[in-house]
Amino acid sequence: MTPWTAVNSEGYPAPAALAVDTVVLTVRDGALVALAVRRDDGTIALPGGFVGPQEEPQATARRKLREKTGLRRNYLEQLGAFADPGRDPRGWIPSVAYLALVPPDTDPGDPEALWIPARGRRLLAYDHRAILRAAVARLEGKLWWSNIAVGILPGDFTMSEARRVYEAVAGVRYDGATFARDLRPPDSCSLPATAARGGGGPVPCIASRSARRPGEPVIASA
Fold it and tell me: What confidence tens digit (pLDDT) does each residue in 154-172 have?
């Protein structure tokens, strides 16, 4: 295949295109999974696409996410830029990567979409394995100091459901009583669960109004 090339108005080599790749994570059957797409050549890749000339990268990420999952509102944050030489065999094509979180019952509308384990060595196209590793590390790192997990939890969730999500993300098991104690926010924190769904910056507390026993509702979304 002949590589794509481009030259800017000053005559210097330029990227042939700008791509967006989105890591869509959730918890299904007790495991952290990522949304992937089977390409025409049989390889597996993260959902993504090219940024339009009148489009911001985040708008591209939301557009592609809507096409793959049907969701219009979900947790979305920028993960970083990936631009290593040779990352894309088609040519010089940097990618802006995003992390998206969706509820466990999200059903991909694309017949070529599938859920794969978020951890492991499954071969992915381009540098998507590195992007996926970065997304999992971001989620793990923010798990206990922000309300990021609410992006995966349903609108109304129990303490036991929250514990299962935290265990899948962290890769550890938690004692139920200890988890309930640690999850309770400080008195000054009373954010609604829906606060995390719009994405954006971190919120330094878990989005629940008070601790509950396993099996009891933690919070009902507005």
Answer: 777 888 888 999 999 999 9
Domain final residue, candidates 108, 142, 176: 142
Residues 6+ apart with CB under 8 A from 112: 37, 38, 39
Work out whether strand 19-28 and strand 95-101 pair parallel, antiparallel, or are unpaired.
parallel
Residues 6+ apart with CB under 8 A from 29: none
Total length of the chain = 222
Rounded to whole angstroms, the Cα distance separating 167 from 152 reads: 13
Task: Give yes or no for a contact between 65 and 100, defined as CB atoms under 8 angstroms apart.
Answer: yes
Domain range holding 152? 148-219
Tokens of 109: 């509308």
**What's the rounded mean pLDDT across residues 189-209?**
38
Please, are residues 48 and 128 in contact by the beta-carbon 8 Å criterion?
no
